[in-house]
Amino acid sequence: MIILASASPRRKELLEQIGCTFNCETSNAEEVKTGIPQEVVMANALIKAKDIAAKHKDTLVIGADTVVALDDAVYGKPKDTEDAFSMLKTLSGKRHFVYTGLALVYNDKVWQDFAVTQVDMADMSDVEIKAYIKTGEPMDKAGSYAVQGKIAIFIKALSGSYSNVVGLPLHKLYQLAQKAGFSLLNI
Ligand SMILES: Cc1cn([C@H]2C[C@H](O)[C@@H](COP(=O)(O)OP(=O)(O)OP(=O)(O)O)O2)c(=O)[nH]c1=O
């Protein structure tokens, strides 16, 4: 039995994409907001996975957490549209990095890893940023954008895992599950 400790429809779709059979449960545990990006995402992935694993024996629980990093700043989901505007204004025209942490928990055992993807965003004018915010896409996404959505016209280049940016690095997850003794090979 596998549980994805997530409320994210994107993570659910990505895990379904690789033919995995699983249930979803949402963790409401308090998350870390600041720090070194890879440490933040791995800590939060573990917080989510452990929270759900505490309720399920002999179950592989998958937790994940995504942030956008630029210089020393770590961006999670925006609080409101003003926050989304300021994040997008900062990311406009900039090379930045998207981190997703993974945590697998099975009874009292833990496996952790993270993936990082480089994203080059084109310049966005204030009018373009405001129009993008009106689509509603930014509100529940780290960094206030969804690479799989309308922002795609401003993504000049992406280096690394695409699924990592969307919220679940599938190759890293496959490898980590193998280390934990589980096969996610469903082809
Ligand atoms: C950067 C980026 C993020 N995202 C999403 C993935 C995550 O759902 C979200 C980051 O927030 P998270 O806090 O990682 O996840 P979540 O709150 O949506 O779900 P849960 O904690 O229950 O697992 O941003 C995209 O969909 N596309 C993108 O391009």
Structure description:
It is an enzyme of class 3 (hydrolase). Keywords: Cytoplasm, Hydrolase, Nucleotide metabolism. This is dTTP/UTP pyrophosphatase. It is found in: Cytoplasm. The record marks 10, 66, 148 as: Important for substrate specificity. The protein is of the alpha/beta class and 187 residues long. The chain has one domain (2-179): Maf protein (Alpha-Beta Complex). The protein is 33% helix and 26% strand. It contains 6 helices and 7 strands. Strands 1, 2, 3, 4, 5, 6 and 7 form a 7-stranded mixed beta sheet that branches. A hairpin with a 2-residue loop joins β5 (95-106) and β6 (109-121). α3 crosses α4 (126-134). The model has no long low-confidence stretch (mean pLDDT 97). The structure holds thymidine-5'-triphosphate (TTP). Thymidine-5'-triphosphate is lined by residues 6-8, 10-11, 26, 48, 64-66, 68, 77, 98, 140-143, 145-148, 165-167.
Give a short synopsis of this structure.
By secondary structure, the chain is α/β, with parallel strands linked by helices.
SSE layout and pairing:
Layout: E1 2-4, H1 9-17, E2 23-24, H2 37-53, E3 60-70, E4 73-75, H3 81-91, E5 95-106, E6 109-121, H4 126-134, E7 155-159, H5 162-166, H6 170-179
Parallel strand pairs: 1-2, 1-3
Antiparallel strand pairs: 3-4, 3-5, 5-6, 6-7
Helix pairs in contact: 3-4
Bound molecules: thymidine-5'-triphosphate.
GO cellular component, one term: cytoplasm
Keywords: Cytoplasm, Hydrolase, Nucleotide metabolism
Site (Important for substrate specificity): 10, 66, 148
> Helix share of residues?
25-40%
The helix-strand sequence is EHEHEEHEEHEHH
CATH architecture designation: Alpha-Beta Complex
The name of the CATH topology is Maf protein
Mean pLDDT: 97
Strand content: 25-35%
Domains (count): 1
| Rg value | 16 Å
The CA-CA distance between the termini, in Å, is 18 Å
Question: Which CATH class is shown?
Answer: Alpha Beta
Bound molecules: thymidine-5'-triphosphate
Give a count of the beta strands, DSSP E runs of length 2 or more: 7
EC number: 3.6.1.9
Cofactor: a divalent metal cation
Organism: Pectinatus brassicae
Keywords: Cytoplasm, Hydrolase, Nucleotide metabolism
